[in-house]
Design a protein that fits this description.
This protein is an alpha+beta fold.
């Protein structure tokens, strides 16, 4: 009886698998036929057959720039066109004026394994957000004396970062690391470039540089990595601050400061 039962079960299993295979083949045939029809109608994008290119080269050219507004910010209408038969497009882009570049600085304490952040009012989103020390790179960062006229952008950025760190976090010195090989574009429609840094173990300054008149900053020390990431995930930081944080944490992992 047991032998007969096993034979019956085996036969049923083969029948079930054959039926399932037939149904699957029918569904596949139906799906393939539907995809072929959509392809003929021009609704299907074929899978990419080439690896993505990370080249920064492009064939857009700027035809004209018109300044629409200038104060603390600069609004520009930029007309561009693809060189090979492209159509002309007008964009409105925003800059900072001057060198149109800025710095951000993430502060790390290697003893407590915590960060120092700042909290300040952001007039754009109309929110009190956390972030890193930050500020513009200005001509004064390359012309404090007559010997600085040939100073490079990199040195000017470093000096701007040192000034902003002292003004906004009231610390100076420490060990500095550049977080990107080149400045990052701040936004798709912004002309400003951002240079980001990590500074480890800066020391408190007794008489720091004063804040700008419009700045009202709270210095928040002893922030754990867990809490820093929570602030990013909870939307309590700008995209510029969040990018700086993530780049800094990556560097700290490389330095074996965090897991």
């Amino acid at each position: 009886f047991e032998v007969v039962l096993l034979m019956v079960l085996a036969s049923w299993s083969r029948s079930k698998h054959a039926c399932a295979s037939s149904n699957f083949d029918q569904r596949s045939t139906s799906i393939n036929a539907r995809q072929a029809q959509l392809r003929n109608d021009g609704h299907v994008i074929e899978p990419a057959t080439q690896r993505p290119s990370f080249s920064v080269d492009h064939d857009y050219e700027v035809l004209r720039e018109t300044e629409l507004y200038r104060n603390w910010r600069v609004l520009i209408q930029r007309q561009v066109k693809k060189k090979l038969g492209g159509r002309t497009i007008d964009f409105e882009v925003v800059g900072q004026g001057g060198l149109d570049a800025a710095v951000t600085i993430f502060v790390w304490n290697s003893t407590s394994k915590t960060a120092t952040l700042i909290q300040e009012y952001h007039p754009g989103p109309h929110e009190l957000l956390f972030g890193c020390a930050a500020g513009l790179i200005e001509a004064k960062h390359g012309h404090d004396n007559d010997d600085d006229n040939d100073e490079t952008f990199s040195l000017m950025a470093q000096r701007a970062a040192e000034h902003e760190l002292e003004e906004e976090c009231q610390v100076a010195g420490g060990t500095w690391y550049e977080l990107t090989s080149q400045p990052l574009a701040m936004d798709k429609y912004a002309t400003t470039k951002i240079k980001s840094y990590l500074v480890v173990d800066p020391e408190t300054v007794d008489d720091p540089r004063p804040l700008d008149d419009e700045e009202d900053i709270n210095i928040v020390v002893g922030v754990s990595v867990k809490d820093v990431l929570r602030l990013v995930r909870d939307g309590r930081m700008s995209i510029v601050g969040a990018c700086t944080v993530l780049l800094a944490l990556e560097k700290l992992r490389e330095l074996k400061e965090v897991a």
